[in-house]
Write a structure and sequence with these properties.
The chain has eight helices and nine strands. The two termini are 15 Å apart. The protein has one domain. Strand 3 and strand 4 form a beta hairpin. The chain is 34% helix and 16% strand. This is WbqC family protein.
Length: 232
């Protein structure tokens, strides 16, 4: 069985979904410390003629709290602001109608925690693309929050009976083959492939939120894009 573990991000970029497409089970690492100025509650789109952030405002966010403990800001003001900003900038995109509806479902969902909101953004996209690994939240299953780093990852792999662990290339600084080989687990790194596609930007902007990809490409094209990337 192939396994990946990642913090839930808000409408992450294409490479995140290339990682999801590589595994049988995907663990949302939602009971680790919140990362400020990361991707958990924000991402980038091409808005009003420039690359800008869309951000979910949080209540009481702190790096001393776990992702699954942090509340999103109440009210609909920020939700309407994001929806309107995207509508203004992407209404002429060929797939705005269906992707705008997907975005609206996540923005105006009943979720109250940023971990759940970010997870919903990912699972909604996966459903849209018929991408169906098994998803699980680390906070709900493993009972090993006292472990950290590679030891916790290895323990999750062992509990799941995973024989292969997949990670983005940044994981090379965190994990080494010897630790995983000693547990009879293969360690693999996915190198994202971000090929140009039509955008409103004058020059191609790689690594924008998956929302940008979906706005300009039909489902079959995006499915093919997700299946690319170097998979050792």
């Amino acid at each position: 069985m192939k396994l990946a573990i990642m913090q839930p991000y808000f409408f992450p970029y294409l490479g995140y979904f290339q990682l999801i497409a590589s595994v049988d089970k995907f663990v949302f690492y939602d009971d680790v410390n919140f990362i400020k100025n990361g991707w958990i509650n924000r991402n980038r789109l091409y808005l009003a003629g420039a690359t800008r952030y869309i951000t979910v405002p949080l209540a009481g966010a702190s790096p001393f709290l776990k992702i699954n403990e942090i509340q999103v800001q109440q009210g609909e003001g920020w939700r309407r602001k994001i929806a309107e900003s995207v509508r203004h900038s992407y209404s002429r995109a060929p797939y705005f109608a269906e992707v705008g509806e997907l975005l609206h479902r996540v923005l105006f969902s009943s979720e109250t925690k940023i971990g759940d909101t970010a997870k919903a953004s990912i699972t909604e996209v996966c459903a849209y693309l018929d991408l169906a690994p098994e998803f699980v939240a680390s906070s709900t299953v493993y009972g090993n929050a006292q472990l950290t780093g590679a030891e916790r990852v290895l323990d999750i792999c062992a509990q799941e009976g995973a024989r292969h662990y997949y990670n983005p290339p940044g994981g090379r600084e965190l994990y080494n083959d010897e630790e995983f080989n000693a547990r009879d687990i293969g360690l693999h790194f996915i190198h994202p492939e971000l090929k140009p596609y039509p955008q409103f930007a004058e020059q191609f902007e790689p690594g924008l939120s998956i929302i940008d990809v979906l706005m300009f490409n039909d489902r079959e094209t995006v499915k093919a894009m997700i299946q690319t990337g170097e998979r050792p």
